[in-house]
Amino acid sequence: MRIAKLLLTGIAALVFANATQAQDHTYDYWDEPYIVQALLGAVQFENLKLDVENGAETEEIDLSIIPQIGAGWGTIPKGDRFQYGLECSFLFGFMADDISFYSTPRGATIRISTSMWMFDLAGGPYASLFLDKNHKVRIYAAGGPLLTYASYSSDWEEDGASIPEEDNNESAFGIGLYARTGFEFRIYDAGMLGLGVRGSWANVDLTDVGGSSDLTGIAAFVSFTAGL
Question: What is the pTM assigned to this prediction?
Answer without folding.
Answer: 0.77
